Amino acid sequence: MSARLAVLLIGVVVTVPALGQTYDILLKGGHVIDPANEIDAVMDVAISGDKIARVAASIPGDQAKRTINAAGYIVTPGLIDLHAHVFGYGGSLWPDDTQLTTGATTVVDCGGSGWRTFDTFKETVIDRTRTRVFSFINIVGKGMVGSAAENDVDDMSPEKTAAKMAEYPDLIVGIKTAHFAHKGYTALERAVEAGRLSDNPVIIDMRITTEYDRTTQRIFEIMRPGDLRTHSYSDHQVEILNRSTRKVQPFTREARQRGILFDVGHGNGSFVFPVAADAMKDDFPPDTISTDLHNGSIFTTKSDMPNVISKFLHFGMTLPDAIEKSTVRPAKVIRKFPELGTLGEGRVADIAVFKLRKGVFGFTDAPQRRLMATKKLEAVLTIRAGRLVFDQDGLAFPEWQTAGDYEVIPIP
Amino acid sequence: MTIRRAVVSNRKTGFAMHLLTICLSLFLAAVTAAPLAAQEAEAAEATEAAATADTVIYDLLLKNGHVIDIQNGRNGRMDIAITGRTIHEIGENLPASRAKNVVDLTEYYVTPGLIDIHTHLDQKGAWLNLNPDHNTLRYGVTTAVDAGSSGHQGFEKFKKETIDRARVRLLAFLNIVGAGMYGDGVENDPAQMNVDAAVAMVKKYPEDIVGIKTAHYQPADWEAVDRAVKAAELSNSVLMVDFHPKEGRGYEDLILKHMKPGNIHTHFYGRLTPQLDANKKVQDYMWKARERGILFDVGHGSGSFWFRIAVPAIKQGFLPDTISTDIHKNSIMLPRAHLNNVMSKFLNIGLSLEQVIERTTVNPAKAIRRTDLGRLDKGGVADIAVLKVEQGKFAFLDSGHGKLIGDKNIRCVMTLRRGRVIWDAEGLSMPDWSTAGPYSNFR
After folding, report:
1. How far apart are CA A399 and CA A394, in angstroms?
2. When you count CB atoms within 10 A of the terminal residue's CB, does the N or C end of chain A come out lower?
3. Strand ranges (DSSP E) for A111-167?
4. Is A54 touching B (CB cutoff 8 A)?
5. What is the pLDDT of residues A236-280, one digit of tens each?
6. Which of residues 349-388 of A touch B (CB under 8 A)?
7. Residue A84 pLDDT exceeds 50
């Protein structure tokens, strides 16, 4: 590992800015999809420092220190993954090499930490990642550390949870309840109470099998507008569909009308092609697209953000719709819009660049079935707070033969 | 565009075919008005034949892939049958009717599970370490060797918390520094380099520890190298060296005098290694060292692979003995040096696919003295990689962020570890969802 030397040398070779170079990076000629600003066209995006400086049809290359030719690529706000696992849970992943490399610049850890463990989460992960990390704090004080803890109703304190949230209002954006394997609704009621005390949304993962004596209808009744049901296209979580008619249940539509939100939370066991296909056919797309990415699903379903988006494209969602459900919509859910999820001028320069590949591609779902599709979205470049963090196609760098006796070519 | 259905058959369809054959033969027998006894005998014979052909032996049959198995001299279209954790059979035209699941690999290359001998996967250890599974198995790597993240003080924790839990076969070079790769404070301190303690640890875990690592040592003396050489000798194991030349501690002396045959110098295409002269000619001592048995490993990482060094060296015939990543938290982002990326670079520079596979299977297996690995044997463990060589326009960054544009890219589409499909990027081994019925409550 000669990384230390490499790091020292970055900055030795500095491109001398000529007069009039007002931007640090210019992404030129990409197809910009920015639903928050209703842009769906070829545009240039200029970045100064960590902010978006300008989005316009033609920004001259000589106004920028570094120009990245994005022609043929799709440029979007950095994606927001509302349901990720980066702490606490045994299958947690490091977000930089799994999310920044797949176009997500913001992730929300979905219940890994509770009020007892949030400080450790902050010190060991949130403060050290290049990915922007928020938390849906678990209503369980110990967090998502196995069934003994997660079923312990004595450790579900709305007051203590709300107090921790008040301590970190910029980092904790909601409450998670998950995996409650006792009868009834206690976990949900406590989570909603914490949501009421802290004025934040609750995200719910709760099975409805008869053994727990729970119904989807009652769960919807306890939930408030703005609360989210994750794992929506599973077949053991939310009864979106009537199993015999394969049509959307009337009470599910009513819940949506009331303002209950439906999140994907794909994961290892919670996305089944027939459920998603039937729901999409009956006009029940998700409100937010998210991954539930963890050490299991990264192998079985490969469900990172572009993978989940590609699956919805196959079932009839348009790309701008999918980008909206992966940027501005989740930003609104966690109440970080318009700071995040937009390419608005003056906003933070979190940007994702994708290739929409045409061909024949296989995708897999929770029961390990295969879907053949003709489009696949693939992340190629990511900018986080104005800094390039991932560049699969080397778009930001010169060819080695033309770089002379090059030192480390600085990362823009 | 037509969508190609998954080419997966199962034994039910095979069985149905045989039933049909039996019925047909019965019908034909009847219409030819053969004697009853003959009919019965024929039917019994047909049933027996069907039963033999339908005896399911293979859990999985990898059909029609282009197999590259350097150790056994295989290079061509072949089938591989897997039963349980092992390879049951390798050969042409193995009967699909004997398999529970058949995967058509006509478009792909099939190789032994790849071996990456320079990784940093002590994920509960120092900061730069990565998750051991998802940065290996997804790239066809079934054996990874952690290169000195832990020393004798931390190894048992590493083993308990990570090695024993990983799905990839995780081996280790033990750092001669007792504390392991925890920064200059310990890594520059000869008092940390206790030869006896290191030797004892290697001997205690011969299944896990393949050798000794020395790295990052800055004082201009030979303490670290010489102690590591001694520890490797005393424990009869392999040495991997990361070396920063200093005034009075030259590279030529390292590879011609201090290191022993079979020792590995990693990062040899790096800028710190004087492998080329001012005219970019490979130095004579490089050839001499190779002749005396010093092995040269890539160890790409954030700082140790430069096209402007590797391209001229390879043109002069100085290829790496082993291709490895030095994968860690920085190198996996930019320049994104996972093993498929590093392999693709060599393929585009001009190595043949066979040369690349040799340097990621047989050669590393020999280098770490695990010649049971990196090969496909009947009865051997089924660690297998399925690779696609994509054609198109691809770009690759080196450690200085210089870009090579190439027309080939190696992508792992399937990985088997101990006979189990652990990575199947496009669901090649899975049935098509639209024909799988309403699979509610799949669990």
Report:
1. 9
2. C
3. 132-138
4. no
5. 767 788 888 889 999 999 999 999 999 999 999 899 999 999 999
6. 360-374, 388
7. yes
**pLDDT tens column, B185-208:** 999 999 999 999 999 999 999 999
Measured between CB atoms, which of A235, A394, A407 is closest to B440?
A235
Closest residue of chain A to B308, computed from CA coordinates: A400
Q: Mean pLDDT, chain A, as a whole number?
A: 93
Omega of the bond prior to A250 within 30 degrees of 0, cis? no
Q: What is the rounded CA–CA span in Å between residue B145 and residue B336?
A: 19
Region A356-384: mean pLDDT is 96
Residues in chain B where the model's pLDDT stays below 50: 1-36, 47-51, 442-443
Distance from CA of A390 to the nearest CA of B (A): 6
Structure-token match 């995996």, residue found: A179
Q: Do A393 and B395 touch (CB under 8 A)?
A: yes
CB crowding A113-139: b at 16 or more within 10 Å, else e? bbbbbbeebbeebbeebbbbbbbbbbb
CB spacing of A6 vs B5 below 8 angstroms:
no
Q: Is B238 helix (H, G, I), strand (E, B) or coil?
A: strand
How does pLDDT run across A212-221, given as a tens digit for each residue?
888 889 999 9
Distance, CA of A284 to CA of B263 (rounded, Å):
62
Q: Whose CA is closest to B236, among B261, B203, B207?
A: B203
- Provide the CB-side half-sphere exposure for B385 (13 A, CA): 31
Q: For strand A23-34 and strand A74-77, is the pairing parallel, antiparallel, or unpaired?
A: parallel
What does the block give as tokens for B272? Answer: 């710190």
| Selected residue of B333, B345, B391 to mutate for chain A interface (largest A Cβ count, 10 A) | B333
Cross-strand bridge partners of residue B171: B145
3-class secondary-structure state, position A314: helix
| Largest interatomic CA distance in chain B | 99
In order of A355, A365, B1, B4, B391, the CA distances from A372 in angstroms are 18, 12, 12, 7, 21
Of B306, B401, B431, the CB nearest to A370: B431
| Model confidence band, residue A111 (pLDDT cutoffs 50, 70, 90) | very high
User: 148-177 in A: which are within 8 Å (CB) of B?
Assistant: none
Complex ipTM value: 0.93
- The Cα of A354 is separated from the nearest Cα of chain B by a number of Å equal to 15
Distance CA(A151)–CA(A225), nearest Å, equals 26
Q: Is B436:B103 a contact under the CB 8 Å cutoff?
A: no
Cβ of B303 within 8 Å of Cβ of A3? The answer is yes
Q: Give the SS3 label for residue A278.
A: helix
Residue-wise pLDDT tens digits, B415-438: 999 999 999 999 999 999 988 766
Question: What's the full length of chain A, in residues?
Answer: 412
